[in-house]
C-alpha cells in the first residue's frame, strides 16, 4: 500500500506539472512589430471591421458615445454571462498603458498583461490571423479615443469556469490554425473577403454552431448557423446552403441593413452593419464574394 501511495502521488505530481506546462499562456514575440509605424487613420478601418466598439461601448450608447469604450455590456451564454471590459485609453481602468505587444498578446493569443488567459467569448481565436500592421494601426487608433474612468465589471460564471488556467487546454484542443476556406482558386478580392470574414469580422464566432459541452465551434459546419448563445432565437446559416442572396444583395444588406425582402438587421447584427457600412465598397463586395466560396451547409 505504501508503494502504491507513492505511485499515485508521483502520477499526480507529473500530471500536474504537465497540465501547468501545457496550459502556460503564450505571448507574442515583440520583434513581430519591429519597424512598423502606426497609421491611426487605417486603424479606424481595422476598428470598424473588427467590431471593437460594438462590444466594448456602454450599453445603449449612441452617436459619439459609441467611441467611449468603457465596457459593461453583458453577453449571456450557456456557460455564464461575460461582461465586456473597459478598453478605453484610461491608464487605470482601461488599456492606456498597454504597448503594441501587450495588445497583441490579448488580441492574438488571448492573454492578459498579467499572464492570464482570456475566455474565448473574446474572439481572439479569430483575431489570431490579424496582420501585424493592422494590429499596430489599431493600437494607434485606440490610443486616440476618449478615456473612461469606469472600472471593468467581473464575469458571472460558475466556479469551475472561474479557473482560467484550463482555457489553455481549450486553446490546445480547439484553437484555430490557418484558413477555413483554402487558397485554391481564390481571387485577391475573395482573399480580402476571407480575411474580413474569418479574422477581423469574426463572423464564425456567431454564425458557426458550437459544441454544447465545450463551446468549441464546429469547423465542418462553418457559418452554418445555430442557436443564439443568449438562448433566444437562432443565428442564420449564411453559407450558400442557407443564403440564396446574390452578391449584390449581400452588399446592399451590409450597406443598409435591409434584406431583399425589406426586413432589417436587428440585435447585434445591426451594429455589424453600421460598422461595415463605413468600410470601402470594395470590402463589402469582397465579403460577398467570399461567402459564395464557403462550403454549403444544408
TrEMBL record:
InterPro entries: Cyt_c-like_dom (IPR009056), Cyt_c-like_dom_sf (IPR036909), Cytochrome_c-type_DH (IPR051459). Keywords: Heme, Iron, Membrane, Metal-binding, Transmembrane, Transmembrane helix. It comes from the Bacteria. One of its GO terms (molecular function) is electron transfer activity. Gene3D superfamilies: Cytochrome c-like domain. Residues 38-146, 188-295 form the Cytochrome c domain. The chain crosses the membrane at residues 6-23. PANTHER family: ALCOHOL DEHYDROGENASE CYTOCHROME C SUBUNIT, BLL4482 PROTEIN-RELATED. This is Cytochrome c, mono-and diheme variants. The lineage of its organism: Bacteria, Pseudomonadati, Pseudomonadota, Alphaproteobacteria, Rhodobacterales.
